[in-house]
Write a sequence for this structure.
């Protein structure tokens, strides 16, 4: 291909590392992780449609240590991707590009997604117990 | 004004005229998924510890089934668009890239169909 020798724009290794870069790549990572998580969603729905035994085995998996760990990770991934996605939609409209605003919105994304994850699990556990 | 050289034009290099459609579809599904995924998480949390009977009653309501169908369609469309960009960015071998893109598209359609049929069989099967 003729394109193989074309000049490239400066790539990631020439820039000084900043924590907002970690937020950026995490958006991708959580997106891919949530894509994998749709397997559980489909399994859960298909099992509910199949019958009580199949549903029992999904519930058993979700209730196991690994299942709870995965579900916790997916809860955070979902809230993070959701909050940071809203941040991205703001940028798409030209809002919040100033460095100071981008730092603040990044911290807000981390804080809000962590808070919503913990809140969901506290409410979930108290409902399951009660 | 066309800034491409005549050689580039004749080789068909440059924009494939598809970028805007992809970008826009990704944003619109993102917008739809804000309320849908929040509703889904709240519902799942609210049903913590629920058994099979309760789950079927929940999915069997037309409103819930309808929202689940909207959630499934926008989720798998959004996942496919996102994974497509990731593959295009990181996979440089043309053959592996095309094979992965086809696999991801097929898998997204397959999973969406299984999820949709599950919801509909609960809705109509009672």
């Amino acid at each position: 291909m003729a394109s193989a020798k074309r000049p490239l724009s400066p790539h990631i290794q020439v820039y000084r590392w900043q924590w907002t870069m970690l937020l950026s790549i995490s958006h991708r990572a959580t997106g891919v992780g949530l894509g994998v998580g749709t397997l559980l969603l489909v399994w859960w729905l298909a099992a509910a449609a199949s019958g009580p035994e199949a549903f029992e085995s999904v519930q058993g998996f979700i209730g196991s240590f690994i299942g709870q760990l995965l579900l916790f990770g997916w809860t955070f991934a979902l809230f993070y991707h959701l909050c940071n996605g809203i941040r991205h939609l703001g940028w798409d409209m030209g809002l919040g590009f100033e460095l100071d605003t981008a730092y603040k919105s990044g911290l807000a994304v981390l804080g809000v997604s962590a808070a919503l994850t913990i809140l969901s699990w506290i409410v979930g556990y108290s409902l399951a117990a009660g | 004004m066309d800034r491409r050289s005549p050689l580039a034009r004749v080789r068909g290099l440059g924009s494939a005229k598809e970028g805007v459609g992809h970008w826009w579809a990704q944003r619109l599904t993102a917008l739809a998924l804000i309320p849908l995924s929040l509703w889904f998480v709240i519902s799942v949390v609210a049903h913590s510890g629920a058994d099979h009977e309760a789950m079927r009653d929940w999915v069997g309501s037309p409103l819930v089934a309808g929202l689940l169908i909207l959630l499934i369609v926008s989720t798998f469309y959004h996942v496919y668009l996102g994974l497509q960009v990731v593959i295009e960015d990181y996979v440089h071998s043309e053959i592996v890239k095309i094979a992965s893109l086809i696999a991801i598209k097929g898998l997204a359609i397959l999973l969406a169909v299984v999820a949709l049929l599950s919801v509909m069989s609960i809705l109509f099967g009672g």
Observations:
- Residues 47 and 108 of chain A are 37 Å apart (CA to CA).
- Residues 19-50 of chain A form the longest helix (32 residues).
- The radius of gyration of chain A is 20 Å.
